Each structure stands twice: as structure tokens, then as C-alpha cells.
Amino acid sequence: MKLPPADVQFHDNVRLLVWRPRGVLNEAALKHIRELIGDLEATSDEPFNRFTDSQALEAIDLNFRYVFDFSLFRRLSYAGRSPVKSAILVPSIALAHYSKMHELLTRHSSIEVRIFEDREAAAKWLCVPVELLIISPIGN
Predict the structure, then answer these.
(1) N or C end of the chain: smaller count of CB under 10 Å?
(2) Residue 118 domain boundaries
């Protein structure tokens, strides 16, 4: 089995993928996580929720068209499957415009996206212990 990148953890016991992008969020990073999620969905018998912790991002180098295409791709590629939740933790709602766009474009699909400023609220919504959403050493 191929090891996940350092910014990704998968908690099989609660069916949760945690992604913590760092540095600059750009098209290459979104393409990489889209492919990783697609591979996991293709090989997994059970659905899994997602948590994105964007608090370590230093900058965002994206445009609305790419985020639009990304969101529509995710919406269409996951159509007809079991519902999943995707929580996005942002440093402030004021800085969450791309996340809001993703949330709007996946609305009424099998992927329910919500944006949070509070880790505990995200954990509650995902029905997981908040400790799983806190950065832990690699290998845990």
C-alpha cells in the first residue's frame, strides 16, 4: 500500500480523511488531493468524511474558474454515492471565499460541505473526537 503524503491522515476506525495543506494552496495541491480522494473512493467499500485544516496556509494561488471546475468535478464524480461530509476549517470566515464557493457548488449533492472557524464545532458535526482534528505526529 502506498503511504499517504505527510499532510494527509486517514482514520479508518471513524472513516475520516484529514488534509492539512501547508504553504501555498495552488492548482497542483488541489489536483493532488482530488486524485488522492478519487483513488480512495475507488478502492474503498465504505464512504468516508473529510476534514481540511487550512490554518497552516500562507497564501492561496487559485482563481475562481479552477475552484469552480474542481467543485463541479467533485460533485459529478461522486454523484449517486452514499452521502459524506466535508468540513473545512478556516482561520476566519472573511478569508473563506474559495471554500464558500466549493460549499455552494456541492450543495444538494452527495458531498455536504460546511465551513468552520472552530475545530470543536467541526468535530461535533463530523461526529468524531476533536483530538483527531488536532495535528499529531506522523505515524499516529
Answers:
(1) N
(2) 8-133
**28 and 38 in contact (C-beta within 8 Å)?**
no
Output helix, strand, coil percentages for the chain, rounded to the nearest 5: 45, 25, 30
Residue 140 lies in a domain: no
Give just the sign of the alpha carbon dihedral 7, 81, 74, 97.
Answer: negative
Residue count of the chain = 140
Is 31 within the bounds of a domain?
yes
pTM of the predicted model as reported, rounded to 2 decimal places: 0.91
Q: Is 41 helix (H, G, I), strand (E, B) or coil?
A: helix
Are residues 62 and 26 in contact, defined by beta-carbon separation less than 8 angstroms?
yes
Condensed to tens digits (0 to 9), the pLDDT of residues 113-122 reads: 999 999 999 9
CA distance to 70, 109, 124, per residue, from 75 (Å)? 9, 6, 24
